[in-house]
Amino acid sequence: xxxxxxxxxxxxxxxxxAGHGAQxxxxxxxxxxxxxxxxxxxxxxxxxxxxxxAIAGLLELxxxxxxxxxxxxxxxxxxxxxxxxxxMFKVHAQNGFWVTxxxxxxxxxxxxxxxxxxxxxxxxxxxx
Length: 128
What we know:
Shape: globular
Strand content: under 5%
Order of helices and strands: HHHHH
Radius of gyration: 15 Å
Number of strands: 0
Structural class: mainly alpha
Helix content: over 70%
Number of helices: 5
Largest sheet: none
């Protein structure tokens, strides 16, 4: 059952992360694409915005897909942790802890999941 539990965790978290990357890169799922995300990043002081949006989107998309598939899980987890740390400190930290105030709560949960899965391994159900 542990392997099935790890698969569920990896699929849900990984695909959500990949979806966020697709929002930034392609404007899918209601996202703003590179130009829109880049403009928003510049507005909060992250420059050059389009390049940083591309990097963030790639970390989320590739890291999320790798995490979901159980491929190079420690690398995928590191990609998720990196982007969540940047999000915490550049966007959410000034809002406190709780997600209801746009705080760091959700970012910390994703970091904990990524680190936890990296430490115990992806389980038996992996892509290859």
